[in-house]
Amino acid sequence: MSYQEVETQANKWMESQAALHNPNQIAGGNPLNIIAGMGNKGISSCIGLQWKYRIDAVDGQIQAMAKNMTDAERKSTYLNVRLIY
Length: 85
Known about the structure:
Strand order of the largest sheet: 1-2
Number of domains: 1
Strand content: 5-15%
Number of strands: 2
């Protein structure tokens, strides 16, 4: 394969791919580990859109629990969240 053929094929592949962001980013994941790989653009977009609705439920539960905590407890409490489906 020539360089130009390889470049054309690589560009074609890249058009169908998207950077896969570590799903726990939105829930406080490691900010230095943002991109976990490449994957199908359509699937990635579909999964990513679901976070808009799921994160509201997570936020609501956290805020409800925080209401029952003292200021000192809120300042010293850290979340250890495991997201499962």
